[in-house]
Amino acid sequence: MARKEGEEDGAPSRVPHLPWMRNPVDIESFSGCPVEHLPRLDPRLVKALDRMGIESFFPVQVASWLETVGPGAFERDICINSPTGSGKTLAYALPIVQMLSTRKVKEVFDGIAPVVSLSVGSAVGQSSIADEVSDLIENPKQGLYPTLDEECVRMEPQTKVDILVATPGRLMDHINMTKGFSLEHLQYLVVDETDRMLREAYQSWLPTVIQLTRSTNQNHSWSDMNGKTLLHPLTTIRRSGAERGFKGKCFPRLAKIILSATLTQDPSKLSQLELHHPLLLNSGKKRYRIPTKLQSYKLVCKSNLKPLSLIVLLQELRGEKCLVFTLSVESSHRLSTLLEFFEDLPFKFSEYSRLQRESTRRKTLDAFKEGKIDVLIGTDRMARGIHIDGLKYVINYDMPPYVKTYIHRAGRTARAGEAGSCFTFLRKHEVKAFDKMLKKADNSSCSLHSLPEESVILARDSSATGSAFIVDVQNKRDSLMYQPTHHYDVRVEGREGILQFGACPLRIISFVSSCIAIIGASS
Ligand SMILES: Nc1ncnc2c1ncn2[C@@H]1O[C@H](COP(=O)(O)OP(=O)(O)OP(=O)(O)O)[C@@H](O)[C@H]1O
């Protein structure tokens, strides 16, 4: 039977099914190290890191280096399970750049090209597919290969980047449609955010990529005018691996690095990656780890007071940048609509939703990064891959359903060894389940945070006076939306009253949990 997300969370002490996961290398047994002490690091990379302001490496970066460029020499595929913000990107980018800078094919390019540098391309859907194609693909100029008779050769377009950063969707678009786009000579495959990537079945991207990296030179040939195949002068053929002891496997072997802060242990999911003799690098003893300097807090409150309590909490945070997570796009929308009815809020907020255009989302995120917006309200879409310098606070307006969700949401703060806090709003009956859930992670202590009751009352009174009330509907909350002619008993600021939909003078503008904001009512 298929498992749902979170089911595999299991007990922390559960022994993983896969033998190679049972005795991982503990990343925490490595200490950070100054850049210049890392063995065999190319001096050009030392300079580049200096320009980036990186003086020393984090433990995950040292561990990964030693298993790839160091004595480990990439003989095994590497699986890295390390907390959010621990520096996983550099942990794979650095060894790969160093290995590619010395690769054989590169030497061939070096011989014919005046400038020696690796080029990085992206296929992530942020520009049109046509723009991406022109960035990634090159049509060879006539006369580049004087040893071949140009008359006889039909020039083929080729990939012009050494390193490609791609999303599964755009990668598949290029595989299917872009002439000259080939993965045949791929040497390294990195799957970041592995657990999420394995859930993205988009056009079976993973089996397709693995299959394409297996093929021989059949797609990389030139043809003469009679259709006879000629060997491309820069083609390297993957030789049979007998000489290296990888019977039946290609050579050079496609090396893989997979990474996550919440790496799956599910054998059926991991088997899709066809890992070779994998080595697990894991942070700490437990399966999940919360960043050391992250403080977790819970706030217990009734759902009808949640919006007001959120406002009070945001006031307490004094306009510091903050991400607010809700369970659904609808819930984010309702919350932001409701907040608009409060006057003089001491923070600027905005919604961040998958229903918005990509360009709108990008602008919102840029404004947030630049400090023009203080609070972003959105769903778990904001929980992955977003890094915002100086972000100190994350708020779970709705309780995260799984510990993995908590880790990724909270992991937007307390990154790269900085301090940060994550607040979670809970209803009374949710507290037990939440505590149990957090126990699945290392460093998961969570204290109670309470808000002064008088501040909550004050916040209620600051809603647009005379024209907007927060109304606590007694029953049948969301059904109100669909039965406009019914009567419902409501309490308006403590007074009992009748709210009639349809012909009544009140206009519903928003539902937030059991609260609704109403405008047009007189006090
Ligand atoms: N050695 C270092 N010294 C200083 N800063 C670093 C170093 N390595 C990485 N960083 C910074 O730390 C931050 C987090 O790094 P990164 O995004 O790679 O984390 P991650 O482990 O991939 O997190 P997530 O799982 O949330 O994606 C980035 O801002 C990065 O620039």
UniProtKB/TrEMBL annotation:
Key words of the record: ATP-binding, Helicase, Hydrolase, Nucleotide-binding, RNA-binding
InterPro entries noted in UniProt: DEAD/DEAH_box_helicase_dom, Helicase_ATP-bd, Helicase_C-like, P-loop_NTPase
Stretches assigned to the Helicase ATP-binding domain: 69-281
GO terms assigned for molecular function: ATP binding; hydrolase activity; RNA binding; RNA helicase activity
Reactions catalysed according to its record: ATP + H2O = ADP + phosphate + H(+)
Any Pfam family matching the protein: Helicase_C
Taxonomy, superkingdom: Eukaryota
Domain Helicase C-terminal: start-end pairs: 309-457
E.C. number(s) listed in UniProt: 3.6.4.13
Enzyme class: hydrolase
Domain comment (free text): The Q motif is unique to and characteristic of the DEAD box family of RNA helicases and controls ATP binding and hydrolysis.
PANTHER family: RNA HELICASE
Function text: RNA helicase.
Family: Belongs to the DEAD box helicase family.
Protein name: ATP-dependent RNA helicase
Source organism of this protein record: Leersia perrieri
Organism classification: Eukaryota, Viridiplantae, Streptophyta, Embryophyta, Tracheophyta
